[in-house]
Write a structure and sequence with these properties.
There is one protein chain. The protein has 2 helices and 6 strands; from the N terminus they run βαββββαβ. By secondary structure, it is α+β, with helices and mostly antiparallel strands. Strands 2-3-4-5-1-6 form a 6-stranded antiparallel beta sheet, covered by helices on one side.
């Protein structure tokens, strides 16, 4: 990735787009499973899956029963590059379990 992308304080975010009809709790379960992470703040309005030091994933579902896609936002407190690296890792892991994901691949970061 290009140096100098990070402008100002974080957090920084990279979004994956998933073409899959899945409920938010189920999506978080799968993300936790493939990343060997844990769901934090389960049962609240802001659940997330920790991916590593200072990085996490949040699921944004369509509003008002709109069809997919849904968004998986990968956040980093460190940098945009850290978010992009974790997003690529997560995208590759989700593809391995059959999800259709639009976003970076590990070899693109």
């Amino acid at each position: 990735m290009s140096p100098g992308r990070d402008r100002g304080p974080g957090p920084f975010v990279v979004t994956l787009v998933v073409d899959l009809p899945i409920a938010k709790p189920d999506a978080l379960d799968v993300i936790a499973f493939v990343s060997d992470g844990a769901i934090e703040n389960a049962g609240t309005a802001h659940p997330r899956v920790g991916l590593g030091r200072g990085t996490w994933a949040e699921v944004q579902i369509p509003k008002f029963a709109d069809p997919p896609p849904l968004a998986v936002d990968i956040w980093s407190e460190e940098s945009w590059d850290a978010a992009a690296t974790e997003a690529a890792r997560l995208a590759d892991a989700l593809r391995r379990v059959g999800w259709t994901v639009r976003g970076p691949r590990a070899d693109e970061v």
